Structures are given as structure tokens and as C-alpha cells.
């Protein structure tokens, strides 16, 4: 059993007094409001909603059409008046009397458990512990979970969702496990309980060690999913990060299992581009694959296995179930083969290969993406379908040995690692915990430390020697960190200062493990028949079929073969493979890609970056270009880079030349007028050579927190060596060189990740085949895009919209588009747009192209691969010198965020005339970028903040608009409050949803947010670039025009504010979709309960009358709606 304990370094260890109060008022503070126009009501809350965040990170995808369903509905989230700062000092004491009244409300609401999560409670848990005491006094029976004990780590969203999950399961699972343990004990059984995937991995690790394979890739293929985990030295890899369904994060120590929707029941189909797609949806066991004859009609991976002879339909589950091979073949013929123009056998083989490619991608995530070479591991395969594909998966990854355990259903499940209370005395607490669960043997103590470079936001976990901590101990940890950082991310910097964030202790008690003995063979070991099989080389061979139960230790056979047993089927397709039965009766076989590569680049970048805009906001993009500079793949990060990245590389190739690129070169570039967007977006790219041939150019674009120069395409590394003069020049013109240089190193590391992967492809398939494959990827995307455009109605559609002002004058700025759909091509003509202006709102051609591609992808095919081929059917007309194609020296900073929003709006308005069911209502219409610089009064360093604000997205035919999301042009993520305050001299006073800001409709628009920040620096220089702002200030707040005398209320720079100034940023919601008087009254009532809509708005906008208890008054609602409809006529 493993028990994980965590010690987070608290301020008392650093010489700070926990519990000290801190003064946050300045001498001459002012209160400034930046507020787009809306009819919202303004509450005067002094604190955040600390029980659970109301603003969530954006889900993945170009545009996420759905966000995670909150674990706790808004009406069951309660505020507590309290505040602790980033060093654990009390800003506002906990109001225990108010909390007692809140607990009474909770009790009246009949909640079953309570989760408590306050900001920075991991630094000082005093308020959470006080809250637990208050709850216990008011309501002694209710289970309480506090985040400082469940997960004492930084990042409030993950900590809150984890403690909520703990509170959810505590009432149910506590009673369940207690009952289960009693029943097991009464039967004389002493064993732990573990989850299915983790239990399989732990059992696989034990069996691997007994079989002589301590390093394993463990795969489990069931009916709906494929799961893989890495085992190193007999120990399963572990993680502290995970997601439950719908993308809600949690952080607890657990066995690291990567799961994808690629099991035997995964459904196969032809995608819009004419290629086979498998999963992630599944037929499950009911109705299951077509061959089950239980009503299933959609072809699955199992149907493909049966069709090409990998599974014997007469021997499924040992012959207890007979499969209908004819029905499987017919389904594949009708739904795959005839649609794609191939034979049934080709279609079935294609289904298998596509599914196996997805499995390989998942295996790369737990191996190569994390710095492990799969060739150094054996593979162990279990689950019903695991052994069917295991040998081919191993061949693809270069794994030399495949182990198929005999005890597929009898592997003893061992204890699952659990999280326990944080203790200052980790060893003593670990031993006490083991004693409490009845473990008397001395446990194994394994210390690890979470370490990062000073300025980074994510840590690397490394071994920490036990015993007394000496200088030699620290030196060993430092050396381990540098080595691990180099292995994981391709770079390290030994002269950089390090931060020790957390010290962890795993307390491991050994449990009795089963001894595996080989079974006695039954029956003849001769082949019981032969079956036609597609070999790994693509040839048809007559493969012998054996019964596993008849094979004894020492049995061996070369070549392609099939081994059947009731639990599964082992398929060996390699004619040069060798298969044997080892001493324990195991079978031993000895022997998505480019987009996943780009995602791996992004993973490495985000984990090693210094600025939160990278590590938390994901304001970057990663792409791969071929040897001639055309984009072949791009990961789903920032949409505003979607179309501009190709032009940046095109300019680079034009100016530097492919012939002038050498191995080890790295090029940096941020010129907006050479394919860029604005100055802070830097693109870094590097040529990849294989055997002296240029085969690829990976590129990464990231939003740096500061910039000082226009950098044309220039080599910053030449043949592997940094060009010191150029680096010195760039960094000398940046106010925070340490942060920016750290982010540049992270970008460099992501390029090294791509280089390794591309060279691996070329070694495996050859550079010619790799080049042919990238060409076909582009051609496929072109076919798919043309097919989707052909389904749109032909015609010409026009729309125009305005920006509020130029930033230097109050003149509105027009953006106009004429959209023409003609067969399989699209033309977007922006000729009616205004000329470029003096203010900072001009957009470059790359920005305009990005919005065209992004919107077209969303209204046609959101899953469209982003590459050069997909762009071929699209023509963009943007007159040079216009606000949508500015020429140097135009100011373009705001064009990337504000004008791009308006370009998106007019494109959506055009498409709304053609395909209204595929277009959402108008979004909140601004990125509202709030930036500033100041000297941190305590960290003694200059800091720069960059905040883009969330707002509401428009409603759509399929549902309500998303609430509190970053503008669709960026699709970035918000920065955690705790990360932000730990780095910058600002204090959040409020961060919540802007009630009643969503536009009314049958499907309501999403809601905006309200944010209040207090400046803690002696003085701060602030900037704003926003739009849709036309309202004056209020008695409490003043607008920027009143505070600073600016021309524009939403666009200004370099304004100085004193310490204690409070800045409020408020955003609007999205537009509604459909008639609000048709919205079901029950949905409106729920909106009122959840605080999205006020009762007054429910009546005036939706015609819904609610009683005092919140229920719908149906008669009054009908009458009110009748009056509103008559009034509108």
C-alpha cells in the first residue's frame, strides 16, 4: 500500500509570521471602471466567491462548444468573508458569525456534505480550520472536507474541484467501504480495494518483475477504451493530475493511466474527408458490435477484427458466444467500404490500422512525450482486445518484447495509493497512518521534491534523499532536477536559481503478492486449424491457430500465428516474429501522429515557461511545416495564430532561403508586417534535417510578456550555437529579461521535441515516405474542406460592423465583408472596410486570415485538420493599407485582439444568412486586454501583468452560450488567482459572474464577468485595449476618460495609478438565439435560482412569473407572454 503525504513550504519556514495582517490601502487610491455597455446590476461584494471558482479554464478545441458541468450548482456555492494573501498573511479575518448563518442556510438546503476552499489556504490553513470548527458547532453531523488538508497546493481551481470531489464521495463511499471491509473480514479475506485500471497496472508491474521485465508499457483494451501506463523498475508511473468526465480537474496521487476511446466497441465511420475514423463513441456491450447480434447496426473495431480473421467467430469467449461474421462484413461493406470506394477487406483492415494508430498516440504520451524511449521497455497486454493488437503496437513503437499474462481475470488487485492529511512530521504521520490501517511491518519511505526554475509555474518531481538534509543532499537534488529537465524538455540551465515548492513522502507497505505458477496443459499443442491473416507486411498468410490451454512451458513457434483462449485472442502478424511460453505460462512475443507531435510541443512549452500567459493562459501555438515551408499540422491552441503562422514561415523562407538553413539553426521573428500579428507574438522555428536532407520546419509562436524591438527573421542559433550579440540586443530592450528569456528557452525546448519525433519518423519509414505522407495529409485536408464547402448553400452574403473608436479619436471604424460561396470554394472580400488608422487597432493580413479560417472551420467542420491543404479552397481579399491589412508603420497591437473580434463578428453575420443553425449569436465583442508594469514591493523585481478578460458567448441552436470564456479569437485560459497574486503586486477583491448580462433568447447568451483588482505597488503604469465601451462612470467608480482625461474610454497606455487604487473590469454577455418568449419557463426559473437572470428580467425579457418559492406561475406566465407578444407586433 502507498500513502502519499505532502509538505508545502509555508511562510514560517521562510521567516515570515503566519497570521500577520497586511495593509492594502494606499495614501491616495482611486477607483476606475472599465465597463462595456449592458444593463447589469452591480453588487458590492468585497471578496471572491471562495467556495468554488465561478470562472473556469477554457476547454480544448478551436472553439469549445461545451464547458464542464459544474460539480456544485451556483446556488449551493456560498461566500465566506475572509482573505489571506500569497504569503499566508491575514488580510481579512474570517467572519465566524456570518459563516454560522451561512451553514444554517446549507442545512436548510439539505446538502449532504460541505467542501471548504479558501484562497491561499495551503499557505495558511487557519481560516479553513476555523470554518470547519464553526460548521461542526452549527451542524455536527455533516461531513466536511477542507482543501488545505486534501490538497495543500497552489492553484485554486484544481484544489477546489479536488476537495469537492472528496466531499461528494465521502458520505457514500465511506459507508460503502466500511461495509465492504466488514464483509471481506467476515469471510476471512484481508485485501485492499483499488480501481480497475490502477489494479491492472499494479498487477502487471508485479507480474512483470516475476517474469523478468521490470520496465513495461502496460496496455488494457476493453470494450470501450484503450488504457496504457508506464512501469519503470517494477513501479507504475504516478501522477498528481487528472480529469474526471467533462474535463473537471482534480489533483491526487494516483497511478498514471492514459485512456482513449479505442476499444473493441469503438464505432467506425467515414469522416467528411473520406477517411476512416474510429471512436471515440462506442457501441458498448448493449447493443454492442454488429457481430454480437444484439441489435447493433454500426460497425466497430470488433467487427473489423472478425472480418479480417483476427478473431474466430466460432471461438469467442471460448465458444460460449458465436459471432455473426456475415453481419459484421455486411455492416462494414455498406457503411465503410462502398462509401470510401474500397473492398470490405481493405475497409476492415483500415479500421484496425486507424484504431491502432490512436493507441500508438496514447502510448507516446506516457513514453516519448515524457522523455522515455519505448524501445527500452517490454509491453504487457491484457483486457479482452489487448493481445489482438499488442504485437503490431509494439512493432510500431520499436518495442522488442510483448508479454501476455495468463491470469487475465485473476490478477490480484493491490491497494490503491490514497491521499492523507498534511503533517509537518511526514514520517511520523506516515507511520501512524499505517498503524491505523493495521500495517505493522516497517514501511518504505520514499521522498520526492517538486522543483522548478525560479520564475517557472510548473514543477518537476525528482527524488529527494532520506535522512538528515545537508548541503550534499541539496546538491544531489539540484543535479537530479537539471538532468530530469533536460530529459523531459530538451534543455536546462544550470546557472538558473531553483525553487523548492513541495516535499512529498510516499509511505509504502509491502503486501502479500501471489506467486504465479504455470498451469498444466490440456489437449494437443498442435495447431487446431489455420486462418487467413494479413501479415505486418500486408501480405495474406495462412496462420496456424492454437489453443492456449494446450501450450506448455517451453513451447515456441516462429512466424505469424493466432493463439485463442476464452478471455482473448493473441494475434502475431509478423512473419519474422518468434512466440514462446515462458516459465510462468505467459506468452512472450519478441520483436495520429503529426498533430499529436504539435500537442507534445505545447506540453513541453507550457510546463517549462516562466510567464503565466504561457503556462496558465496557453497563449501560444505549435505547428509543423514540411521541407518546402508549407504547414502540415497545427495543434488546437490559439485560433488567432491559425492563419498567420503559415505566412510567417513563408516570409522567413523568402528572406533567408531554404538553401541557407543549416542543422542546428534557430530563427526568431516578430515583425507584424512579415506574416506576424503584433510585436509581442514571437515566432521561433528550426529546420530539421535527416541524413543531410531538410525534411521539416517545426515552429512555435508565443505571446511574450514584453517586447522592445521589431525582430525580422534572424538566426538566433547558428549550427547549434547561440548568437550572443543578437540575444544581448533583444534582451537589453526588454524590462523583464529573465522571464522573457525563460519563455524563449521553453519555446526552444518545444522545437527540440518536434525535431526528435520527426527524425524518428524518418528513421522508421524513410524520408521519402515521410514526405509523401505529409503531401497526402495536405491533399486530404483540401478534399475534406472542399467537400464541406460544397454542402453550404451557394450565394453572396454581406455584413458590416463597427469598432467604437480608433484609440486616438472617437471616430468609429468600419469592418465589412462580402462572403461568396461558389461550389467548393469560398471568397471573403473585405474591400468595404475603412483605411488603416492612426490608432493601435489595425489588423495585419495574418490576423484577418486567421479569423477567416477559424470561422469557416467552425461553421463547416470543427475537426478539420489545420494545414496548407485546408486553406487552398479559400480566397481572401483584404486591400493593402486597410484596417484589415495594414502596412508599416501602422500601429497594430489592438488589431490582433479587438479588430480580429470584429472580423469574426462580420464573418459570423455573413454565415448566419447561409447556415443559421451553425452560427452562434454575437459574443461579448472584446478581449479587453488589461496590462501594466510595476515594481513589486516585496519580491524586489519589476513585473508586468497581462490579463485578457472573459465574457459571454452567443447562444446557438444547440444550447445556451458559454459563460465566462475568453474571446473566441483567442480561446486561451484564465490565470489562476493564486498564481497571479504570487507573481504580481495586485490583490483580487472580486471575481465573479456578471448577473443578468447574457442576452435573452430561446437559448440564452452566456454571461460576462466582474473583476476588481487592488494595486499594491507604490505606483503602477497601466494600459487598456478594449471595445464596446460607451457608458459613463458611477458614484463609486470613474471611467478612464474621467480619471486620466483620455480620448477613448477603452484604449489608452502609460497611465500611472497610486497604491491602493481599485480597478474594476466588467464584461458583457453574449447575444441570445431565438425568441426568449419560447424558452421553457422551467429553464428560466433555473436561471433565476442559479443567479444568471434576475426575477425582474425573467418577467420583462422572458415573460415568466415566479412565485415567492421560485416555482413558475403558469397562468400568469401565459398571460404575460401574450401581452409581450402583442406589444411587439
TrEMBL record:
<comment type="similarity">
    <text>Belongs to the oxoprolinase family.</text>
</comment>
<dbReference type="InterPro" id="IPR003692">
    <property type="entry name" value="Hydantoinase_B"/>
</dbReference>
<dbReference type="InterPro" id="IPR002821">
    <property type="entry name" value="Hydantoinase_A"/>
</dbReference>
<protein>
    <submittedName>
        <fullName>5-oxoprolinase</fullName>
    </submittedName>
</protein>
<dbReference type="InterPro" id="IPR049517">
    <property type="entry name" value="ACX-like_C"/>
</dbReference>
<feature type="domain" description="2,4-diaminopentanoate dehydrogenase C-terminal">
    <location>
        <begin position="9"/>
        <end position="62"/>
    </location>
</feature>
<dbReference type="InterPro" id="IPR045079">
    <property type="entry name" value="Oxoprolinase-like"/>
</dbReference>
<dbReference type="InterPro" id="IPR008040">
    <property type="entry name" value="Hydant_A_N"/>
</dbReference>
<feature type="domain" description="Hydantoinase A/oxoprolinase">
    <location>
        <begin position="193"/>
        <end position="407"/>
    </location>
</feature>
<feature type="domain" description="Hydantoinase/oxoprolinase N-terminal">
    <location>
        <begin position="70"/>
        <end position="136"/>
    </location>
</feature>
<dbReference type="Pfam" id="PF01968">
    <property type="entry name" value="Hydantoinase_A"/>
</dbReference>
<dbReference type="Pfam" id="PF02538">
    <property type="entry name" value="Hydantoinase_B"/>
</dbReference>
<dbReference type="GO" id="GO:0017168">
    <property type="term" value="F:5-oxoprolinase (ATP-hydrolyzing) activity"/>
</dbReference>
<dbReference type="InterPro" id="IPR045760">
    <property type="entry name" value="DAP_DH_C"/>
</dbReference>
<dbReference type="GO" id="GO:0006749">
    <property type="term" value="P:glutathione metabolic process"/>
</dbReference>
<dbReference type="Pfam" id="PF19278">
    <property type="entry name" value="Hydant_A_C"/>
</dbReference>
<feature type="domain" description="Hydantoinase B/oxoprolinase">
    <location>
        <begin position="588"/>
        <end position="1076"/>
    </location>
</feature>
<dbReference type="Pfam" id="PF05378">
    <property type="entry name" value="Hydant_A_N"/>
</dbReference>
<feature type="region of interest" description="Disordered">
    <location>
        <begin position="512"/>
        <end position="531"/>
    </location>
</feature>
<dbReference type="Pfam" id="PF19328">
    <property type="entry name" value="DAP_DH_C"/>
</dbReference>
<dbReference type="GO" id="GO:0005829">
    <property type="term" value="C:cytosol"/>
</dbReference>
<feature type="domain" description="Acetophenone carboxylase-like C-terminal">
    <location>
        <begin position="422"/>
        <end position="582"/>
    </location>
</feature>
